[in-house]
Amino acid sequence: xxxxxxxxxxxxxxxxxxxxxxxxxxxxxxxxxxxxxxxxxxxxxxxxxxxxxxxxxxxxxxxxxxxxxxxxxxxxxxxxxxxxxxxxxxxxxxxxxxxxxxxxxxxxxxxxxxxxxxxxxxxxxxxxxxxxxxxxxxxxxxxxxxxxxxxxxxxxxxxxxxxxxxxxxxxxxxxxxxxxxxxxxxxxxxxxxxxxxxxxxxxxxxxxxxxxxxxxxxxxxxxxxxxxxxxxxxxxxxxxxxxxxxxxxxxxxxxxxxxxxxxxxxxxxxxxxxxxxxxxxxxxxxxxxxxxxxxxxxxxxxxxxxxxxxxxxxxxxxxxxxxxxxxxxxxxxxxxxxxxxxxxxxxxxxxxxxxxxxxxxxxxxxxxxxxxxxxxxxxxxxxxxxxxxxxxxxxxxxxxxxxxxxxxxxxxx
Length: 413
Ligand SMILES: Nc1ncnc2c1ncn2[C@@H]1O[C@H](COP(=O)(O)OP(=O)(O)OP(=O)(O)O)[C@@H](O)[C@H]1O
What we know:
This protein is 30% helix and 22% strand. It is of the alpha/beta class. Bound molecules: adenosine-5'-triphosphate (ATP).
């Protein structure tokens, strides 16, 4: 049985690769010839979510009677996998299968896939090398306008990554704030959350102060997203509890914008919001006005500041290139600069490296480290993937109990 892997961060599209695999005359790919693949991917999941929303079709959750959108990432992936396997796929296409899964769910899914791989061919699209499945024998690459098949060992021995450093200092904010900066940004006191009588969070107390660098950790379903939505003013469960956000007690008549303007937020799923025809430079400038794209003529000061950010990330030579055509890594670096140009009190990064390759993730993390070190902006980083270069000063870890998740005592390195 042949199993192959493909680096998803390299062009062309997944569809082009699968077309090649199913039509190629290569003897290595004979197990895929004229077969139809079954996709375990976020796109497949989105189709089921749309079917729920638009057609009340609850195929994936009919046993649990829950909506897909209310399941945590790990729970959704498991529901999809269980459903797809019932159809006895001719071959399985796994698109970044371990994204958003905690360590224990990664190893459970890995075991399951390995057992399936005994009689079902696998195509794995990956972005991080350490996620390549142990059953993979070959890597399919597209280089110099042609597909080529390499032995896995040959691929791993290639020299992929060269080093990147951000040498310039972090650009300063455009103007001094009129009000003195808040020392305590977020304070939760003994917060409890439950859904349909199921306890999710139990007695959670947490204070985030100016300039601190936090990582929020916890297994799938422990309530990280629930906590994050409370902090960005998006969760009504915060009302009536002691939740203080940027000087406002939640539910004291504040507008949601009073909270959101303090936060530079980034998660990969928001990339689709930025599809307009805007230059790299204008994308960064638009962060000053919090608009998507630029609709006012910027001042010279604003243009110069955005150029400094581009220079910091080594993209000053492509300032006039359409953002849409940049690499995934460069797009994300630009969105972080866009979020940071105003030096907001807090930037919140929710699984920001999902979908990036090893080098992209390394570069991204280095920029985050630099921001945490050289600015007064507090950083809150939410993730499952252990990033070797991520060095938060504080860790908030959730631990599941029958009464809801509690804070586990964890200290940063
Ligand atoms: N609107 C809702 N209705 C019912 N249950 C919900 C709702 N939102 C979340 N939950 C449940 O609350 C629990 C915590 O979910 P949450 O998404 O906050 O966890 P998480 O730690 O972010 O998980 P993951 O790492 O998998 O993304 C899960 O069991 C989830 O199913």
